[in-house]
Write a structure and sequence with these properties.
Keywords: DNA-binding, Transcription, Transcription regulation. By secondary structure, the protein is an alpha+beta fold. The protein has helices spanning about 5-10, 95-100, 105-110, 125-145, 150-170, 175-180, 185-200, 205-215, 215-225, 230-250, 255-260, 265-280, 280-295, and strands at about 5, 25-30, 40, 45-50, 55, 60-65, 70, 80-85, 90-95, 120-125.
């Protein structure tokens, strides 16, 4: 997998950004995003104020909502699954080089903070801390947007270092939540996801999975919640919906055949499900995807 840079993001999403190849910040989350898994060479952390996002980090899916804190790192893999329209928040992206050029002892500081890989990628924070982070991000972004000198990057490094430090102080109280999930719980999650990928198209009840894992349904749901994942049933639904979209977009199967492949009793049941999930009927979705493909060929 190729390394993905901040410049790759700017180019792919057609963003207006020329100040630095090692740093970027945003408040409006663009709905245009890479549909593939990336291996970033940068750190990113932040919060959202409204809307939601679904993101996979190291193949584990997280539902990012107001009250979430999100961070991902160069050694991780990232795939954006979905971004709700008009999602807003505050995120920064920066490379290790960006900070090291300002603070040579960054490595010693870094290993003790939320930036280190031993800390979770997603957890929930309380409203007061969310508001404090939001205010702090806003003030720093105001400073960054008001700098108009050829030494912009030097000034940016100093305020971002301060942001990292202050954010870490706020997050200290969440230390118990930052510790990685136990190996046993991680194994449960991985086993469930493997079973799900093998069986989701059969639309089996959650009892099928918990019986295989020798757990109760409540235990499985609690494990997913502690890790900050979407629920097991939501994960199964995501797999089913993505497969339905794929089959409608990239196969020659008619809608009845697709409904059968995905274990729906009939076309009507499948169509009702699909429209509830996407707002479009299967035929309307297929027509839209066909039109998009034709435009891309021109």
């Amino acid at each position: 997998m190729d390394i993905y840079t901040i410049n790759n993001i700017v180019l792919y999403r057609k963003l207006d950004w020329t100040l630095s190849d090692d740093f970027f910040y945003l408040t409006h989350i663009p709905t245009a995003f890479e549909p593939f898994t990336i291996h970033p060479n940068y750190y990113s952390f932040g919060i959202i104020h409204q809307g939601s996002m679904k993101i996979e980090i190291d193949s584990q899916q997280y539902n990012i909502v107001p009250g979430s804190f999100l961070i991902y790192r160069p050694e991780q893999t990232l795939k954006i699954v979905e971004i709700e329209v008009e999602t807003e928040g505050a995120f920064i992206l920066f490379t290790r080089r960006f900070i090291q050029n300002f603070q040579p002892s960054f490595d010693a500081f870094f290993t003790k903070t939320f930036l280190h890989k031993n800390f979770d990628s997603h957890f929930m924070i309380d409203k007061n801390d969310h508001d404090q982070l939001s205010t702090m991000f806003g003030k720093i972004f105001d400073v960054l947007s008001s700098i108009y000198t050829d030494r912009w990057e030097i000034s940016a490094r100093s305020v971002i270092y301060a942001l990292i430090n202050e954010t870490d102080l706020i997050l200290k109280k969440y230390k118990n939540f930052l510790n990685p999930t136990s190996k046993k719980e991680s194994l449960v999650i991985n086993k469930f996801k493997l079973l799900a990928k093998e069986n989701f198209s059969n639309r089996l009840p959650i009892t099928f999975y918990v019986d295989k894992l020798n757990l109760s349904a409540s235990q499985l749901y609690k494990i997913f919640k502690r890790k900050g994942h979407i629920s097991p049933s939501s994960y199964l639904n995501e797999l089913l919906l993505q497969e339905a979209k794929f089959l409608l977009s990239d196969s020659e199967n008619n809608i009845g055949e697709i409904a059968d492949k995905l274990s729906f009793s009939d076309i009507h049941t499948f169509s009702t499900y699909f429209k509830k999930q996407t707002g479009l009927s299967p035929s309307a979705f297929r027509s839209r995807e066909f039109d998009r493909t034709q435009k891309d060929k021109k």
